[in-house]
Amino acid sequence: xxxxxxxxxxxxxxxxxxxxxxxxxxxxxxxxxxxxxxxxxxxxxxxxxxxxxxxxxxxxxxxxxxxxxxxxxxxxxxxxxxxxxxxxxxxxxxxxxxxxxxxxxxxxxxxxxxx
Length: 115
What we know:
Layout: H1 2-30, H2 43-70, H3 79-88, H4 90-102
Helix pairs in contact: 1-2, 1-4, 2-3, 2-4, 3-4
Keywords: Membrane, Transmembrane, Transmembrane helix
Transmembrane segments: 7-29, 41-68, 80-100
Protein name: Cardiolipin synthase N-terminal domain-containing protein
């Protein structure tokens, strides 16, 4: 379950950002420069997706910060750097961290860290 959350938390926010930008650009183009009341999905659904994505990003940032801090494969002098980068640039930094330290087949993923 933790691996699924870490994977979903790493890749859903960038996917959602692309979806959200495409949705707003499409509504703006179709609405003649005014995206109000011209979305392809109901506004309430969009707000729900947005809030759920923000909560997921918060939870993923906490999980990845803890993972980076406790991960013995992250060099000691890079742990604080990873913490700052994850906290300040989570949608970009978390997929990079996942690719380097968590993906199957990575040379940095030899033993489980958090269980």
